[in-house]
Specification:
6-stranded mixed β-sheet, 214 residues, 29% helix, alpha/beta
């Protein structure tokens, strides 16, 4: 198990109780290797987001076991979800302070992170002054401020047009190659899934298929 960064064994997640309970995940097994990339593929309601939440510690499974061997986890949501009255710099700085328990860490400085995602000229811009793609790049920089060993991306291009979405995907891929975090990306698009090392298709909360990239 030393070469596994995170694993799920028989993970089941129920929402609600009794006859009204809905099964979000139903006996999911998954292993994540250090530095690898995995796509969670499936339609809306298939369990992709719930599985990301389980891996990120946001949802506790109803049954089964989850073993995540790092506390350094970054999250990129479908929408940027930036603090609206904070500039791009301040949004990333806030995340960096949280990651460093309130103390400034030069390795997580906002300016280099925003430069890394190509926004060195947008440091003082508020979210309302950014395009959708720029806001999502700020969100990626914010996630990197966690110095993640595991980066979880929940359909990060879902609210973007195709050209902007492609640029955001290329950025995530480039950062994955450079920084070597483990990447898990939820998507409904098989073409996006094929770009990662491995794809895990979910259907009705279960693993329906697993495919390794050629």
């Amino acid at each position: 198990m030393s070469d596994v960064l995170a694993s799920c064994r028989g993970v089941r997640v129920l929402h609600g109780r009794g006859d009204a309970a809905v099964t979000a995940l139903d006996g999911v097994d998954l292993e994540l290797e250090p530095h690898g990339s995995v796509a969670l593929l499936g339609h809306s309601g298939s369990g992709k987001t719930t599985l990301l939440h389980v891996l990120g510690g946001l949802v506790r499974p109803t049954s089964g076991t989850v073993d995540v061997r790092t506390e350094r986890i970054g999250y990129v949501f479908q929408g940027a979800n930036l603090l609206p009255h904070f500039s791009a710099f301040e949004n990333v700085a806030f995340a960096a302070r949280v990651a460093a328990n309130g103390e400034a860490d030069p390795a997580l400085a906002p300016e280099p992170l925003l430069t890394l995602v190509g926004l060195e000229r947008k440091l003082d811009h508020l979210p309302a002054e950014l395009s959708g793609g720029e806001a999502q790049r700020v969100a990626i920089a914010r996630a990197l401020a966690q110095a993640p060993e595991l980066l979880l991306c929940d359909e990060p291009t879902g609210h973007l047009d195709s050209d902007t979405g492609e640029r955001v995907l290329e950025l995530i891929e480039a950062l994955h190659r450079e920084l070597r975090f483990t990447l898990v990306l939820a998507t409904h698009d098989p073409d996006v899934a094929a770009r990662l090392d491995r794809s895990v298709e979910l259907e009705d909360g279960r693993v329906a298929a697993t495919e390794v990239a050629a």
